[in-house]
Amino acid sequence: MSTESAAGLLGLDRTKISNIESGIRGINAERLRTLACNCACDDPAYVEGLVAMANRVGRNWWDRYRGSLPASMLDIAEMEHFATRIRAGVTVHIPGLLQTGDHATAVFRMGVPALPEHEIALRVAWRLERQQILEREAPPTFLGVIHEAALRMQFGGRKVAWAQLEHLLAMSERDTVIIRVIPFEHGSFPGAGQTVNYLQGPVPQLDTVQIDSTHGAEFLYQEAQLAKYRAQLDSMEQVSLSPLESRDFIHAIAQQL
Hints:
By secondary structure, this protein is an alpha/beta fold. The chain contains 11 helices and 6 strands. The chain has helices spanning 3-10, 14-22, 29-38, 44-54, 71-82, 101-108, 117-130, 148-152, 158-172, 223-238, 243-255, and strands at 85-90, 141-147, 177-182, 196-200, 208-213, 216-220. The chain is 47% helix and 14% strand. Helix 6 crosses helix 7 (117-130) and helix 9 runs antiparallel to helix 11. The protein has a 6-stranded mixed β-sheet, with helices on both faces. Strand 5 and strand 6 (216-220) form a beta hairpin.
């Protein structure tokens, strides 16, 4: 549907439609259902999944960072908030939802070009605040498949690295957090080595893959793309150690520091 058609249907001007599409302006449930009906969307579960996102009351915590951080970073926080399950495959970095503040600081200090300290502090605060979804009453299930290389990277030095591994062990004791390790000795594994986050929505149409890149986060949502990354994460999980074996493996690396 064109912007002009949507504006006429909802009784809004074109600017407001553009702001809704870009996420600057919200849309109420009634208008969302009107759009869905006139776009011939006959999947009630999908429509209600969208309505649940539209029915947010007031500002969310990530809105405080609007105008200070890139929009893609706010999008990550919002998608994690609504996800029912999150799967991460990482080779060099610890998953963001499991990073300590010191580890995150060391990672952001390696940005190119270098960020000023106040920008680093802002990004660390955002990353730590994202982690509140794992603390809430009904947290999403989180599965992190972590390559041994990421566990041995000493971002911030040995002390910071040891504390990061101890934090991973503590988080892995939670019922909703599963950590699996791919050891070096397992040899090859699927994927191109980039960080992959698969965010499962309340319905399959709201699934999203987020990939880290040098120029920022990329988001994929076409079914062919989603299927490819589901298969990649499935394969990574198959060649990884069990959760119990992974805890023992992480503990052994921590003892070496």
